[in-house]
Design brief:
Oligomer: single chain
Strand content: under 5%
Shape: globular
Structural class: mainly alpha
Radius of gyration: 19 Å
Order of helices and strands: HEEHHHHHHHHH
Helix content: 55-70%
Strand order of the largest sheet: 1-2
């Protein structure tokens, strides 16, 4: 237990400082040693909107999208375990740690995107990696969004998500709206202490919900579960976020001319 806390703390410290982790988990038969630093291979990488989607062509020398698919599969597997809250030990703890370490190296190598990665990965990959990291820390490690580390995550997400000229998301997200809704939702939850930033995320979620035809909490939850979310229908933070999005949709679609003040 002490060793487990040590390697998790070491990785968190490396995540915050940008340094190299000093320790690693002792390989086991279930979790053999994995080289997370390898980024180049000619395996015909593709980027997934969700696990069931058809692949989109990408730079054949880039593997970050297939690596992200592997991370998503791990997060799905971990999130579906019924005893997660009661016992994050042993094999389960190792799975969370390895997913966290994998994401650490994916994000750390993001600075090489212009050289090693396709345009899709440059615009989509980094934001997805950071969002997966936020999901892991909040939903699986149970860190509240008020913890300062989330401000670092949010800053990284903002710099990789928003177009600095148009102040909206890049057009390359077209066709990947379900994944974008997931990314935006994590950003919105992490930014709830910043009203201006939160409103920016809420407006963009509203727009994406319109594109996807999502007009209910159930539809919203279904879309997030289509990527990965643990107990989304019981997540009060998500319910509060949806109430903001739905309110925005209700009033934005109703012009003042339509209001019958006499009837009110």
């Amino acid at each position: 237990m002490i060793w487990s806390k040590l390697i998790r703390g070491d990785l968190l410290n490396a995540t915050i400082s940008g340094g190299e982790p000093r320790f690693n988990m002792t390989p086991t038969t279930t979790h053999p040693i994995t080289d997370f630093t390898s980024f180049e291979a000619s395996d015909g990488a593709h980027f997934l909107q969700s696990l069931s989607d058809e692949p989109q062509a990408a730079d054949p020398t880039c593997t970050c999208s297939t690596q992200f698919s592997s991370v998503l599969s791990s997060l799905h597997s971990i999130s579906s375990r019924s005893h997660l809250e009661a016992d994050i030990t042993g094999d389960l703890s190792d799975s969370i740690y390895l997913a966290e370490r994998h994401l650490f190296y994916l994000i750390r190598n993001a600075r090489d995107f212009p050289v090693l990665h396709s345009p899709n990965c440059s615009s989509l990959g980094a934001a997805c990696f950071i969002s997966a990291q936020m999901y892991l820390y909040h939903t699986l490690r149970d860190y509240p969004f008020e913890v300062p580390v989330f401000q670092m995550f949010l800053q990284r997400l903002n710099s990789n998500l928003w177009d600095h000229v148009t102040r909206s998301v890049d057009v390359i997200w077209e066709g990947n709206e379900q994944m974008l809704l997931w990314v935006l939702s994590l950003g919105a939850l992490a930014s709830r202490g910043d009203g201006m930033m939160r409103n920016r995320y809420v407006r963009e979620i509203h727009r994406i919900c319109d594109v996807l035809g999502v007009f209910s909490l159930e539809g919203f939850v279904t879309m997030l579960n289509g990527v990965v979310w643990r107990d989304a229908e019981r997540d009060l933070n998500l319910v509060a976020l949806w109430n903001e999005v739905h309110s925005g949709m209700s009033f934005e679609n109703l012009s003042f001319e339509e209001l019958n003040l006499e009837a009110i």
